[in-house]
Amino acid sequence: MTNAIEVRALCKSFGRTRALDGLDLTVRTGEVHAFLGPNGAGKTTTIRILLGLLRKDGGEAGLLGGDPWRDAVRLHARLAYVPGDVTLWPSLTGGEIIDLLARLRGSRSVIDAKRKDALIERFALDPAKKARAYSKGNRQKVALIAALASDAELLLLDEPTAGLDPLMEATFRECVNEERHDGRTVLLSSHILAEAEALSDRVTIIRDGRAAETGTLAEMRHLTRTTVEAELAGPVSLDGLPGVHAVDIQGTRLHCEVDHAALNDLLARLTAAGVRDLVCRPPTLEELFLRHYSAERTGLGAPA
Amino acid sequence: MTVQAPPAARAGQADPGRAGSGLAGTGALAKLAFRRDRIALPASVYVIVALVAGTAYTFKKLYPTAAGRAALAATGEGNPAFRFLYGRLDGSSLGSLTTWRYGMWAAIFGALMTIFVVVRHTRTDEEEGRLELVGSEVVGRDAALVAALLTAVGANVAIALLLSVALSFTGLPAVGSTALGLAIGASGLAFTGIAAVAAQLTASARAARGIALGVLGVAFVLRGIGDAAGAGGPSWLSWASPLAWIQFTRPFAAERWWVLCLPLAVFALGVAGAFLLAARRDLGAGLLPDRPGRPAAARLLSDPLGLAWRLQRGTLLGWAVGYACTFAACGAAAKGVGQLLGTSAALQREFTRLGGQAAITNAYLAALMLLAGLVAAGYATSTVLRLRAEETGGRAEPLLATAVGRIRWGLSHIAVAVVGTAVLLALAGLATGLGYGLRIGSAGPQAARMIGAAMAQLPASLVIAGVAVALVGLLPGACVAGAWTVLGAIVVIDLFGEVLQLSHWVLDISPFTHAPRLPGGTVSAAPLLWLCLAALAFSAVGLAALRRRDIG
Known about the structure:
The complex is a heterodimer of chains A (about 300) and B (about 550). With about 300 residues, chain A is of the alpha/beta class. Chain A is built from 10 helices and 13 strands.
């Protein structure tokens, strides 16, 4: 089995709303796969279908070599899930919930107390507090610790860092990187692009219930431009230079985006003016994402 | 009326600049509260008014003669168990009898309504974070509490006014009707103040409701002891209970209007206290600390059944205490029931019909067991509906994402419902048997006999629970309303079916029609077996549907 998740032309409607409209998604075994899209794009619906909580209307969905609807219970023993909006039983403590979820997964004997305690310490969670007293971030931690402490081979994380502070977010990234080294497969849904950028091997961008783009970040950057920021010795004009976009010149400071093909011409122009400082960087997913959506949303070309 | 109290309480504080802004947005929030309660609140008001006015009307029919009324009053006043359940009597006019029979109970229902309304619009909203969202709008710090108080005050004022009018319409004297209406409404205001304080004390709405309901329970027991105590006993205890203030107002018997000041004072003190407490705490926090729990799960909490039990055990405990107390008192009352019913031929017919037997004590006990079965069906319904609450609350999702199948999850709560219902019915039988048996000097045999009689209702109660399971599976969106409607319809059929002259076809719909009337009746296995099969079939349909549908 080389693919942990195989989704083909998946469809799901709620009444007249079409939540998924022919989605394709492939997650290879052992990879961290980011599932990116704006709110309402269908990320959570996809994950719920993969969990067998929702029934698909059409298409194919395969999970760990099984059918997520028919084999739900058998498959669930091999995965752990962190919901996007974590609600817990208010009268139970965080520690109780972590143990409960582990036992329900069927790992009663193998629950690794040391691993659990280490995670509780790393995430600075008070496990003796009742769930009703937890903040959103702390509820998120409970679900994360329950998932990370498990021996599941697949982790389904639906916007797992919503509500975590930057310090905890860093801890979470460390943990996911460790999972990758342990050979676990992770599907990470997010609209936080830095997270996907820092963690994922491959990315699928979902929009309006379809996969808009899928591949490694490197592959996606082919489609994109390099961002150039420069401090120049004298004034420069980029007029008439093809492939340069979003030009912003403030005195001797320049900011622009450039197609790969036009990079050489641009640099020639800049060195002619005299370069004091130069930063060339690949676009952040943020930029990629913004362009992708605002372009399609407004029906116009790339934004200025 | 006294809604002026909140700003007045506020004005006593050191920060005059905020006094006005603290109330910004109150109107909008009150409108929202009325809108959210637009069905439940009018329905509660209607039921309470109809209960009392209906009793007045029925008593006129049941006790047409002064002699009959005097006999009823003498029995009611003479039996300590009745005094515990209903309070003391002032005279034997129709108005006095109505006050005695349902005056305090209407106040109890009013207090329940009030506690739920006040906590729902304050602490529940706060606990679930809705108040945080609202509080970030142009809404003053005190607006939510004031809006909740306005809602509760509005409902209780409506009860007071409607009841005064409705009672006069049944032909009772206008002055006494007004006194009874005002006394019941004012009692609701007292519990508005109590609930407002309780809502400030704990971070959890459930605990806040528990505190307020605890006060209600203590108020009931205090006056119960005071009222039941004969001459020389601690009858002064009754004065400590807001529930007894209704009889102390003496509607229809030389009204004492000043007693109405007592509940109003409790209301004013409670509201002032609530605002003081609210000013001293943070949003979302309580004054009583949340106790820390176990950092790791006990062995019991390792499967869906363990979780369902953990989530529902507190509720079952509360029901069990209520069942034991109520049925012990009702059982104790059985000894005098022959005398009491002897005062009205019509009432005797009524019990004989409900209980299905000629021997009056047996008929009374059998009617009690029918009630135990109906109320236990309510417990079973609410327990089964927890499945839906877990689902809509988003807590079923992480559970079903583990190696727990939907059937196993569904069965876990159904198991708690079945066992809980059985426990409640057994308790009802035991308590009734002991209550009656101890007074006639045969506790053991009566207890055994009554446990059997109560358990005979179990299959019928479980049919109602089965219907709730079926609804959870088939009609998730409408299952809560649907299940309670079914139970309501069954209650109407069982209690009023023959009075309403419903056809046998309709009466046969209720599972309780097919349950034996014990003690005294005959038992045959076939109907009980059929009821069990029906309960199983409904549950199976529900579970099968639950397996097929979307979750969430």
